[in-house]
Design a protein that fits this description.
Blueprint (H helix, E strand, L loop, with lengths): L21 E4 L4 E3 L7 E6 L6 H19 L2 E7 L3 H11 L5 E3 L4 H5 L3 E6 L2 E6 L2 E5 L5 E5 L7 H10 L1
Parallel strand pairs: 3-4, 4-5
Antiparallel strand pairs: 1-2, 1-5, 3-8, 6-7, 8-9
Helix pairs in contact: 1-4
Length: 162
């Protein structure tokens, strides 16, 4: 287990094995990466539900979900928020994919999505907005770190649907 003050952040590479996880979703159910074996899944990490950037990104994934699902790609969103907050986020924005809670930040850390980042010019520890495409065998097919919320989903869709 990583120490939250550790300044060396893991970076996953394409072709590597995606770290396994089992987390609680916004309905209180357990969801595991292994539940998606045999399908592609986008796993994206965001800092905080119901904030402007995270809402933009989640709504963009919602709006692109049919096209992604038609291509055999599911979507999972992960943040440190508690399941109750995620349930409100889902309801407020009619989100149509699972939102997973990682309050211990173990999964965030395993994916390199938690660590040092710049926030308003200061270096802080926090969630690094990141997106991964995990293939049918559980390998990383695409790894994007420090992504911008606006326009990010369109860029990812272009990459994964090509």
């Amino acid at each position: 287990m990583s120490d939250a003050t550790n300044t060396s952040t893991v970076r996953l590479a394409e072709g590597g094995t995606a770290p396994a996880f089992t987390l609680t979703d916004d309905t209180g159910s357990q969801v595991s990466l292994s539940d998606y074996q045999g399908r592609k899944v986008i796993v994206y990490f965001y800092p905080k539900a119901d904030t402007p950037g995270c809402t933009t990104e989640a709504c963009d994934f919602r709006d692109s979900l049919t096209e992604l699902n038609d291509a055999g790609i599911d979507v999972l969103g992960i943040s440190p928020d508690k399941p109750e907050k995620l349930a409100k986020f889902r309801a407020n924005h009619e989100l149509t994919f699972p939102l997973l809670s990682d309050p211990s930040k173990e999964t965030l850390t395993a994916y390199g999505a938690f660590g040092e980042k710049k926030n308003y010019g200061k270096v802080v520890q926090g969630v690094i907005r990141s997106t991964f495409l995990v293939d049918e065998e559980g390998k990383i097919a695409l790894a994007k770190y420090n992504v911008k919320a606006t326009g990010h989903v369109a860029r990812i869709a272009k990459d994964v649907l090509a």
